[in-house]
Amino acid sequence: MTDLLKIEWIKLRKYIVFKLMAIFFAVGVVALNYIVYTVNKNIVNNVPGAGLVSFSPYDFKNTWQSTSYATGFILILPSLLLMLLFTNEYTYKTHRQNIIDGLSRRQFISVKIAMAFIFALVSTVLVFFTALGFGFASGTTFSFHGVVFVAYFFLKALSYNMVAVLFSVLIRRTGFATGVFFIYTGAENIISQLLNVLCIKIKREDGTDLGNIGDYLPMNASDSLLAFPDNPIKNLSKAIMPTDYTWIAFSLAILYLVVFYLWSRWKFLKADL
Amino acid sequence: MSVLSIDKLSKNYRSIKALDNVSFTVPSQTVFGILGPNGSGKTTLLGIIMDILKASSGSYNWNGQQSTNEVRKKIGTLLETPNFYHYMNAEDNLLIAARIKGRGEGDIEKVLRIVNLYERRKSKFSTYSLGMKQRLAIASTLLGDPDILVFDEPTNGLDPAGIAEIRELIKQLNRQGKTIIMASHILDEVEKVCTHVAIIQKGVMKTYGSVQDVLHPSGVQASKVQIEIAAADTDKLRTILQGMPGVESVTAAEQELLILCDESVSAEQVNKYCFEQGVILNKLQVKRKSLETRFLEITGKQSDR
């Protein structure tokens, strides 16, 4: 696998889009969290009566969760990059050439999946250090309280990346694949929201607590593991919201990952390339 | 000893039979041409033996072994179009191929020189002309000095000098003892370069064997000689030729005549005969029974596209 990854690195290092996206994402992660950090510190806390809702998202007890949640909004960037890299192979027909030259189909798809894993890992490491930095910046005592959310972030990143791999294998054409990826993500979010609203309605009308069913969809399962930390305003609405069954969302997120993995592999191994 | 043996290979795309029960073997150290019109299934065939297409049925093996990626590492292949990363230069593209093959990294400079791309080795692939792309693809096949080379339309996009160079390269590789499998729709190319040929049409193997055997099958037709002939007075020429011993038929072709005659008739005899009959020839050309004639006999005259 090391040899295969070294070959992927040759493909990456000269790819200008990779460099741009990597820088943009790294800067983006810090910038995005900095915006949340300063808005909260300088604006929210200065509103008259803010004492009632006093809350610091980047205190060490919240920073792991806040950073993971906020970064989730630009997590589409690494998965888009992954998709570009993969569909480029189809565009240039280098997926064929790599196999003609002596990669097995299994090796080819395995290294792409490994890349999805590495991208998720690197994003997670970035989130870890960003959270650490803002934790210290907020002047609180170091703590790993809530660091599990960084692990959830990894799961979410991996889910996005594996969807990118799957869509690349199934659709092949760069423009079409990225288009479908955006539309699918948007559509799933809308459906998820509708389902969740329905769950609230059911709970209010006849007391049945179904949980948030919209969170059980393929991309929303890992999404739902990350939410903005509990705060006074959020707590006000808790009574009317259905219960978050984290273990169901977590199990489903793992299950979907397995499905994405097996589906992309199966398709690449048996298709005409 | 055969390098490649193909057994009843078929490939269907829904109702279309791209390959229908194709079987043949490629003897070692030959230049084996796969000849067929556009869309006849040549690239499909090569795609299957390179594992980028899945056969519907049938099997193949290389050197008697089942095909694996390890076997492919020792074969240099150019399939259909030059496939490279557009944003990378020639050197880096070849580095990827060499790394995949697990050999040939030290050959990069050498192969770039063979195809005259060394000076442009740092240029991005996307800046290359079609002919340069094709030459880079050929360079890539030479990495690691493989014993078997597979070329799909190797002279595609090349200028006349480039075509001659590549044909010479193929012959030279063959003289070094390498086996070359080459798909082409250009008859002239196959005739000039190949030792063996398989003719394929609409996915069906029509015939295969040595170029000699395919071109000159035993039988009556093979012993005929065709001569193109012309003189100022075509009518008189036709009359006297019809009377010449050994001439079987005389047909008009624009300003000239085409005669089909017995193998024993030579150009010299025809010239002498006509002169003695008072006709001075302004054209006299013996047409070897070419692959083209034979190809059309085998495949029919209609384009199959």
Give a short synopsis of this structure.
Chain A is mostly helical and 273 residues long. Chain A has helices spanning 2-13, 16-43, 63-71, 76-92, 94-101, 105-137, 148-171, 174-206, 218-223, 232-237, 246-270.
Description:
The complex is a heterodimer of chains A (273) and B (305). Chain A is mainly α and 273 residues long. Chain A has one domain (2-270). Chain A has eleven helices and no strands. The longest helix of chain A has 33 residues, at 105-137. Chain A starts with a helix and ends with a helix. Chain B is α/β, with parallel strands linked by helices and 305 residues long. Chain B folds into two domains: 2-214, P-loop containing nucleotide triphosphate hydrolases (Rossmann fold, 3-Layer(aba) Sandwich); 221-288, Alpha-Beta Plaits, CATH 3.30.70. In chain B, the strands form three sheets. A six-stranded mixed β-sheet of chain B has the order 6-7-8-3-9-10, sandwiched between helices. A four-stranded antiparallel β-sheet of chain B has the order 2-1-4-5, covered by helices on one side. In chain B, strands 12-13-11-14 form a four-stranded antiparallel β-sheet, with helices on one face. The mean pLDDT of chain B is 87.
Report the biggest beta sheet of chain A as strand number plus sense, adding barrel if it closes.
none
Rough outline of chain A: globular
Largest interface: A-B, 27 and 31 residues
Class derived from helix and strand content of chain B: alpha/beta
Total helices of chain B: the number is 11
Give the mean pLDDT of chain A. Answer: 90
The run of helices and strands of chain A is HHHHHHHHHHH
The number of distinct structural domains of chain A comes to 1
CATH superfamily of the largest domain in chain B: P-loop containing nucleotide triphosphate hydrolases
| Cα-to-Cα separation, first versus last residue of chain B | 36 Å
Overall radius of gyration of chain A: 21 Å
Share of β-strand residues of chain A: under 5%
Secondary-structure element order of chain B, as H and E? EEEHEEHEHHHEHEHEEHEHEEHEH
